[in-house]
Amino acid sequence: MKLIDEYRDNELLVRLRERIHRQARGIGRGVTLMEVCGTHTYAIGRYGIRRILPENVRLISGPGCPVCVTSASDVGRALDMAGKKGVIFTTFGDMLKVPGPGGESLQKLRAKGADVRVVGSTIEAMRIATDNPGSEVVFMGIGFETTTPTVASMIKTCARLGVKNMSLYSVHKLVPPAIEALLADSELKVDGFLCPGHVSAIIGTRPYEMIPRKKKAAVIAGFEPVDILEGVSMILEQIITGEFTVENQYGRAVKPHGNTKAVELMEEVFMPAPSQWRGLGVIPESGLVLRPEYSSFDAIERFDVPYREYEQEEGCMCGHILRGVASPEECPLFKTSCTPHDPVGPCMVSREGTCAAHYRFS
Amino acid sequence: MLEIDQDNMAVIDIGGVRREVSLDIMDEPVAVGDFVLCHAGFAIRKVDEVDAEERLALLREILEA
After folding, report:
1. Do the domain assignments include residue A219?
2. Cβ(A153)–Cβ(B22) below 8 Å
3. What per-residue confidence (pLDDT) applies to B15?
4. ipTM of this model?
5. Which residue of chain B is at minimal alpha-carbon distance from A91?
6. How far is residue A43's CA from residue A38's CA, in Å, rounded to a whole number?
7. Do residues A177 and A284 make contact, with C-beta atoms less than 8 angstroms apart?
8. A8-22, A341-355, B19-33: which range is least confident on average?
9. Residue A198 with chain B: CB contacts under 8 Å
10. CATH label of the domain that carries residue B46
11. Which long-range contacts (CB under 8 A, 24 or more apart) does A298-306 make?
């Protein structure tokens, strides 16, 4: 396919690999790079990128898989809403298997008779609401800046068309505050970040400027093998020269200003709020809640579902893995009691989860 | 992109599969024949074909040097 095949060109990949090995020999010491995007995690696994990197270049995954960073308490709240009579609960597919309190999940709740439906877009969720005027339709919004504008668009359309039986349970999160939290974590030793391509298509290149200020490399990259290897090579070059800056490898989709309409939509409908991240804890201003003008669409208010604290499953190391301080293979549950078929922790659920990618490709 | 209707919805072709996407959050004009990046039923950006080709040409040059 055009614009894809060229970025999988074998000859280019061989040469890029040679260049990376040369650069790594020059650096000498071990370097650790983090990819902060679930789509990168999946692509890196799929193309076997880790296996062709030099020994002293370690690639670890960060908190970039939306369902993985959703806290057990937020899953618990979703279960409380989905269990209400007359509610049709809609969300993206990955969310269904995520274990909440006591191993309960939306999928298990559906098996017990709750009306839980998977949608591919907010347009589908809205269609369910207009097709079922006698039911309350809740959409659980998960994801980062790539997804949130589509949800903001849904809320605005509902307001414009007077769709009153639709509401939103927002557990949306923002990427830059999570990177800030990682940068402040003294346990984490990362030399450079492979920044997310699709999130950046929306927010542009500026929100990452705190990374080079901390003397770490930042490269926004695409998702084909050539993109990822070129991104790695660009990070290594920054480490070699000591000149840290935000570089954009994915210029065909990412412009410095991003998608201004999408950002404006997001800011018009949502405002930042503290958010609980699995593994990272509560990060200030890292979540998104509806602005007062749109609070009539807030499912939490509409159904008055209280927040309850839940701990994650014992032995599960998702929290450490999401912070990049442990690898899936270090977790005692990995490939034993925790598998993609029957996941204990969220990192094993989504194909973008670090554990799921390691399970599938290593 | 194959067609665009009055409701700002477009039909796209992804490797032979036709899908409907909304253009509601696009901030740049798009036309039939353009390549777009899509996510969760929405087109989010036009793919810059010139940049895509120039980038590859530049990369080849760097790797040959």
Report:
1. no
2. yes
3. 86
4. 0.95
5. B40
6. 9
7. yes
8. A341-355
9. 37, 39, 44
10. 2.30.30.140
11. A298/A167, A298/A168, A298/A170, A299/A81, A299/A138, A299/A167, A299/A168, A299/A169, A300/A77, A300/A169, A302/A136, A302/A167, A303/A80, A303/A81, A303/A84, A303/A87, A303/A136, A303/A138, A303/A167, A305/A77, A305/A80, A305/A81
B49: chain A residues, CB-CB within 8 Å? 3, 252
* Number of structural domains chain B divides into: 1
CATH number of the domain enclosing A284: 3.40.50.11740
* Residue A256 banded pLDDT, cuts 50, 70, 90: very high
Residue A341 DSSP class: S
Give how many domains chain A has, as a whole number.
1
Which single residue is written with the structure tokens 């308490």? A73
Instruction: Write out the residue range of the structural domain in which residue A266 sits.
Output: 67-174+258-303
Q: What is the pLDDT of residues A311-349, one digit of tens each?
A: 767 789 998 998 888 999 999 999 999 999 889 988 999
Residue A134 lies in a domain: yes
Range of the domain at B24: 3-64
> B40: which chain A residues are within 8 Å (Cβ-Cβ)?
92, 120-122, 143, 146-147, 150
Under an 8 Å CB criterion, which residues of B touch A? 15, 22, 24-27, 35, 37, 39-42, 44-45, 47-49, 51-52, 55-56, 59-60, 63
- Give residue-wise pLDDT tens across range A283-294: 999 999 999 999
Any domain includes A160 = yes
pLDDT surpasses 90 at A55:
yes
- The bridge status of strand A136-141 relative to strand A166-170 is parallel
From B6's Cα to the closest Cα of chain A, the distance in A is 16
Interface A–B counts its CB contacts (< 8 A) at 89
| Closest chain A C-alpha to B42 CA, distance in angstroms | 7
Question: CB-based contact (8 Å) between A198 and chain B?
Answer: yes
Among A354, A357, A273, A272, which Cα is nearest to A316's?
Answer: A354
- Least Cα distance to A245 among A221, A220, A267, A223 occurs for A220
Of B55, B59, B60, the CB nearest to A252: B55
